[in-house]
Fold this protein.
Amino acid sequence: MKLKFEKRTPKGRSDYEPLLGSCFDCGHEVSNFAKTCPNCGRERPFLTPEERIEETINLTRCHDCNHLISKRAKLCPSCGRPNPSLTLGEEAVELARMASANRTVIGCAILVLGVIGFIIYKIVTLIQ
């Protein structure tokens, strides 16, 4: 793959650097002018500076290969291990759902016991 170079230095300097970005999906180095990633074929494969900052914040490390991966990725692109941050997130959602269901059952039980207690109280006060 031939890289295009463009002058990106202050006036008077002759340094050149390639305009490279990282593919959002596979991490492959791609020219910022590329329309698709040559490695995985993703459209608009590069990250803008704003997206890079956002993506850096949303990165985690794979527990098996220590590769940086997106917290939104289901699998590590390097070794294929399931993303622990996504797995933990799904488990947390399921636990929250179960806790919500438990709260509903407990609330209904308290309400029923309260009604039964009120009925017993009224019966006892009427008998006296």
Summary: The chain has two domains: 17-46, 47-125. The mean pLDDT is 75.
